[in-house]
Description:
It is built from three helices and four strands. The chain has one domain (about 5-40, about 55-95): Alpha-Beta Plaits (2-Layer Sandwich). Strands 2-3-1-4 form a four-stranded antiparallel sheet. It has helices spanning about 15-30, 65-70, 75-85, and strands spanning about 5-10, 35-40, 55-60, 85-95.
Amino acid sequence: MSAFLIIDTQIKNAEAYEGYKKQAKPIAEKFGGVYRARGGNMDVRETDLWSPTRIVIIEFPDFKSAQAFVDSEEYAPMKSIRLQHADCTSFIIDGD
């Protein structure tokens, strides 16, 4: 069963964040990740619990692969860059 890593990102430093994006993508792909959405247009219909800013959705083959990516030593330096230059909410969710 596939799983999705969903990240809502409010970018604080766009130039530095571009470097993060270029470096993080091949690492996600190494863990089987496929980007399904990456900051595209949104039509937000309800915001009772949360108001999204910039959504990234990465599909992984399974829950464990998504966790392995997020927790990997390879991704750790990229995560640090992301956290320095953006405020984020992220979670992993099982697909159908």
